[in-house]
Structures are given as structure tokens and as C-alpha cells.
């Protein structure tokens, strides 16, 4: 559900940018780092805690 809302917003902003391009020129948009982090965390929550695996870290003693 959240992913659908996020994709809808991306589509709307893409369409808005396309319509405003003759007036604003080509603007290269970048997503802030915290938005990417929040999106990854939401995707992780949707997958569930069982899908989160610990990486293999060999211990050398």
C-alpha cells in the first residue's frame, strides 16, 4: 500500500516535471539520502523480520 502511494507520487512529479520542462529547462532531481533510507526500511518491514539474514562474518581467533 505504501509502495503504491510512493509510486503514484513519483509518477505525478515526473508528469509535472515533464509539463514544466519548457519553462524551467531540464532539472536533474536528486532524492535526499534520508528518503532512500526510509524507503529501504519500509520495504524491509513489508518483507518481514524473518527475511532479514545476518551476514556471514568469519571469526578469526
UniProtKB/TrEMBL annotation:
It comes from the Bacteria. This is Uncharacterized protein. Keywords: Plasmid.
Amino acid at each position: 500500500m505504501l509502495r503504491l502511494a510512493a509510486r503514484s507520487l513519483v509518477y505525478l512529479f515526473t508528469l509535472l516535471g515533464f509539463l514544466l520542462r519548457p519553462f524551467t529547462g531540464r532539472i536533474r532531481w536528486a532524492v535526499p539520502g534520508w528518503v532512500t533510507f526510509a524507503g529501504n526500511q519500509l520495504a524491509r518491514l513489508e518483507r518481514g523480520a524473518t527475511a532479514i539474514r545476518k551476514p556471514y562474518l568469519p571469526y578469526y581467533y
